[in-house]
Amino acid sequence: MQRFDVDYVWRTDRGRVRTRNEDAVAVEPQLGLIVVADGIGGAQAGHVASQLATEAIVDYFRRRRSTSSIGKRLLVQVDEAVREANRRIWELGQAKRECRGMGTTVVMGLVSEDGLIYAYVGDSRLYRWRDNQIRLITRDHSLIQDAVEQGFFRSLDEARRHGVGANLLTRALGTYPDTLVASGCEDLQDGDIYLFCTDGLSNMVPDDWLRQLFDVVGERLEPAADALVQLACDRGGRDNITLALLRIRASDGRIPPSSTS
């Protein structure tokens, strides 16, 4: 079985408009875990919800993950972890008046011997750069995405031109006592780069710009992370910007993740 080394870089930035950063990011190299969350803009205590989501998911895998877990079991675990985060956010929102109505998106990834196991709720995204191509792996849980898929518009850009809000979510953590989690598994190849990000990046930097950027910086994670934040800010920085990059490198031994921030 092919073994890999894994490198991590992450960034979070308030952007140019917001007075507070309501995003959160957690990277745990020893667990092979990345979590990115975006507190719902305008909702009370959104920053509390995003932080609680990342903490709950990290706590879950610190307590329960077995190094012998296989892909199918890890798919169950990522679902359980995200739903546990949802319950904790919901319960805190019910218990504290100042937190009532808070919510967050989340996208997470877990590196295993079977591949990258991922899960998400909302419109925070996961992309993969491979063979000079960028591919969006996740599907936004948003009204605008549903409108396009149901054939009302030919593209997201057309829907935006007709006034459909890009930030209207159909699913988020903390809205209800339970939630439906989307998940899957990606095979790993030498040279893969995975990008986890909030919509403060994806709404500011089009997919074709992502392709061009990775085409220029290649596998250099630090310059890529800095350039992505700068691009989002230069194009308006209307929201908080958070991203985490994961790079896969072939190895003859165990998976020994290294990290920088």
Automatic annotation (TrEMBL):
Q: Where is the PPM-type phosphatase domain?
A: 7-248
Q: Which InterPro entries match?
A: PP2C, PPM-type-like_dom_sf, PPM-type_phosphatase-like_dom
What Pfam families does the database record attribute to this sequence? PP2C_2 (PF13672)
> Which domain of life does the UniProt lineage start with?
Bacteria
This chain belongs to which protein, by name? PP2C family serine/threonine-protein phosphatase
